[in-house]
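To: structure subgroup
Subject: Chain for Friday's discussion

All,

I'm putting the inputs and outputs inline so they're searchable in the archive.
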Amino acid sequence: MNINDFGLDVDILQKLLAIALSKGGDFADIYFQYEHSLSIKMEEDIIKNTSSNILLGVGIRVIDGIQTGYAYTSDLSYEKLVDTARNASIIAKNPQNNIAKSLQKKNKFKNVYDLIDPIIKHDIALQIDLVREAYNAAKQYDNRIKKITSSLASNYDFITIANSEGLLISDERPQMRLMVASTAEDGQNKATAIANNGGRVGMNFFQNVESAESIGKRASEEAIILLSAKNAPSGELPVVLGSDESGVMIHEAVGHPLEADGIWQKTSVMWNKFGEMVANPNVTIYDDATIPNFRGSLNIDDEGLETENVMLIENGKIVGFMNDYLSSKMLGHKRNGHGRRESFASIPIPRMNNTVLMKGDYSPEEIIESVPYGIYAESFQGGMVDGTGKFTFSLNLGYLIENGKLTAPIKNVTLIGMNLDILKNIEMVGNDMGFFLGTCGKQGQSVAVTSGTPTLKISKMTIGGINGNN
């Protein structure tokens, strides 16, 4: 695929950049996007709906100091593109005769996607078969499973980015996610669990990594366990975060505060903590967009910069932030490829990709055995963190830890705390690793992300539970 296929060429892009800078400005860029997406949903034993969509458009940005002008269009006629460039340029009021450099096509130095066999390029009947396979596996797991929803979302993006510094670069990006929600009932209790998997992968994922059947079974297995779960205790207790889904806490409680727009605007609790010890020395956290095939991985960010592994907290000390063009400029930091946007209709902002807490030295068994009485977090429903660093996370499934062993499954668990306190209270870090696939929202934009943690022990957290046995 080539941008010329859509009636655009280097000369047109060069002219648009010149128009965008005609009223001044420090920097201008153009973001072209073509996306084909497909979604399939099955419930009540039938394929309920399918939808196929094409997204096509151009966004043009001008940066002048700390101000950003942005305009976008789905009309690729030259006249409309000129209007879009002029609208973006309005933000600049002080012409400085900035001239866009001649565009030079740049090739990517790496590929972190599986481009061999993208799922969306397969016949829809084959994709429906995957949805059915997951659905049937969930349904047949146990006769107490009463409701299932199975869905597959896949897309294929082609983007081209051109900027006033002379960059011209393109990327093709596959994405896929198969998700199953199972609801179990036994006459007295009702419980729902969700399982999913995917990434920037092809059809061979289901043969080489995890089958659709396995995803369906995992959802129903957790739903059945939850039928016998007891209400959680409340109070201040040690908490062990399991490796499978606990990355969501690192994403929310640590990742967002280290995005550089919140740093230079001083809205993050971490804005004045650079170079300081904010965590136990056993804590090292990084964001790596270069992990092959992961949901949050990118060859280049949405400003055209090659991605890299960015260290955020090293041995307890803040050593870096995730930045885009504007925030790196405001902080005087080197750009590190974390400018992301939902689509051509959105401006790029600093975002996470794959945020990971590095492995430690302890086995998961050693960590659990160190807890006389506490909580083990297995899966999450969701959570939130405010600007002060205070967070709440709701567990879907947890377990009591009694005398160093996992005992009764528990429900109605809320974990409450401050991110800076929790970072200092990470007492043990495991030698395993698990990853959570997510969709992250920020400033009205959603992007695909992954977060990872080993099993870890937090010496104390506030548990909001409901005492009792039912």
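Points worth raising on Friday:
The chain has three domains: 3-105, 119-155+173-227, 235-464.
The longest strand covers residues 46-64.

D.
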